[in-house]
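Researcher: Structure for this, please.
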Amino acid sequence: MTICVSVKTRDGIVLGTDSMSTVTLFGTEGQSMAQKTYSNARKLVQIGELPVGVFTYGLGNLGSRTVISHILEYSRTLEFGNDWRVESIAAGLSEHMSREYSAIHADVEPGPVLGLHVAGYSDGSSLSEEWEIEFPDSPGPNLEMDSHEFRVNWEGATLPFGRLFHGFDPGIIRILLEEGVEQNLLQKSLTESPLVPQVSFSAMPLQDAINFAVYVLRTTIGFTSFEAGPATCGGPLQIAVISEEDGFQWVSRPEFRIPEDTNEWA
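Model: Predicted structure, token format:
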């Protein structure tokens, strides 16, 4: 499991992830069990030297290589002239990853989830955009946020922060439907709910967008650390900012280091 977030403002995009990865064992009857967790997996990467970034959630590996390794391989194949588009980069990445995914998981039904979130600035554009690629359901790419949308989006362990932000647990919908509440009434009540906080992402400065992204990540990590079972989110935060002025910039980049004490060995 993981938690990844994008905060899109007029001045740019903040992308953030945790660093937790889980090694899962599968039994002969399809049952799964978490064997080991690691706290230093890479989930966020820049496409070449462009103002475009990708975070990944779901599967951490494809075959004998990490998903990040496959993204970097795709990035090295690109040749950029004028008028390149974020959409075309996302489409090419979707095609590249589709070949890798199908070759490995063609006989698995349903296949495991692999999500890729592509965000940045097209050549000559003053506003950013975001595209979503998700296997096996809809490789896309699908437009997540166009250039005139400004909001937050989070993937992976969506429930903890979703409860806080939306004001209810989405699971309540199924429970109420089973109890006989009319779907039309339920849908109207939720879509017109005043519970969602009023956050002005369009006016939010980039530093505040960084703060909001960190808030989403730490809230989720804190919540999941108390749930039963092995940890699903955690580790150092990976944060990057993409802006028209400065392109792709790391705020908190994964770096090798010597552990300060034994508590950091994991």
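Researcher: Any notable elements?
Model: The longest helix spans residues 86-105. The CA atoms of residues 8 and 150 lie 5 Å apart.
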